[in-house]
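Thread title: Can someone regenerate the structure for this chain?

I was given the following input by a collaborator and told the matching structure tokens would be attached. They weren't. Posting the sequence so someone can regenerate them.
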Amino acid sequence: MMTEEEKVVLVDENDHTIGEMEKMAAHRSGALHRAVSILVFNNRNELMLQQRALSKYHSPGLWTNTCCSHPHPGEPTPQAAHRRLKEEMGFECQLNKVFDFTYKAEFENGLTEHEFDHVYVGYYDRDPVLNPDEAEAFKWMSVRSILQDMRAQQEKYTVWFHLIMQKIEEKMPELVV
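Best answer:
Regenerated them for you:
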């Protein structure tokens, strides 16, 4: 669960650190900051989706990638990815960075996500142990099924997950089964 004192790392468009800011202030101002997104697959090539907790400060109850968060100031992105996967989903696995991207999305509650997002992929074959402050539910789905469902019911998914799935479709077509 987020604390008011939690800080995010502010970056430029090339992911160079330019400062830090309190997390909610960064989301109110739309400041570009560093983030991590994690996609965990099982041996059937299904992706573990997370339904965001209903108490989240934006996008509550929407389906998204396995885990996402922000590195703390001074924390390397791989370390942040491992930390948050354990905190949110209750397990650890090897993670490999596959790509990064920048996006900006404004929400109805006045907050803005403006992130330089580092995307990691891992493999794990058991069910997670959800942190109820972070995740309401989980499910396993094939990439093809996710893409089909996103086209039919785009409002069920987070903005950044749509972008991640577009990148997966473009850069990692072997996962689209």
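The beta strands are 7-11, 17-22, 33-41, 46-52, 63-64, 67-69, 95-106, 112-123, 135-142.
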